[in-house]
């Protein structure tokens, strides 16, 4: 995938995630109970997945699971 298309998809995913998150926080009916409450939880998790996916598309090589040890200081 070309870098430009990755960035366009990343911005779209981030905007969709933020928009959905703001709607869940401020616009969704707060009296949802039962199954609708679980739907609201699922939408919240989808929001997090969209934001994390957008960041991974924007910066594909930034996440590393290695712990780096500090170098000794040369005095």
Question: Short description, anyone?
Answer:
With 75 residues, the chain is an all-alpha fold. It is 65% helix and 0% strand.
- Residue ranges: pLDDT <50 for 5 or more in a row? none
Number of helices: 2
Instruction: Supply the helix-strand structural class.
Output: mainly alpha
Spatial extent as radius of gyration: 18 Å
* Overall mean pLDDT: 86
Compressed to H and E, one letter per element, the order equals: HH
N- to C-terminal distance: 46 Å
For the biggest sheet, the summary is: none
Q: Helix coverage percent of residues?
A: 55-70%
Shape verdict: elongated
Strand content: under 5%
What's the number of domains? 1
Number of β-strand runs: 0
Task: Set down the secondary structure blueprint.
Blueprint: H1 3-27, H2 35-58
Helix pairs in contact: 1-2
Explain what the structure shows.
Helices cover 65% and strands 0% of the residues. It is mostly helical and 75 residues long. The protein has one domain (3-58). The radius of gyration is 18 Å and the shape is elongated. The termini are far apart. The model has no long low-confidence stretch (mean pLDDT 86).
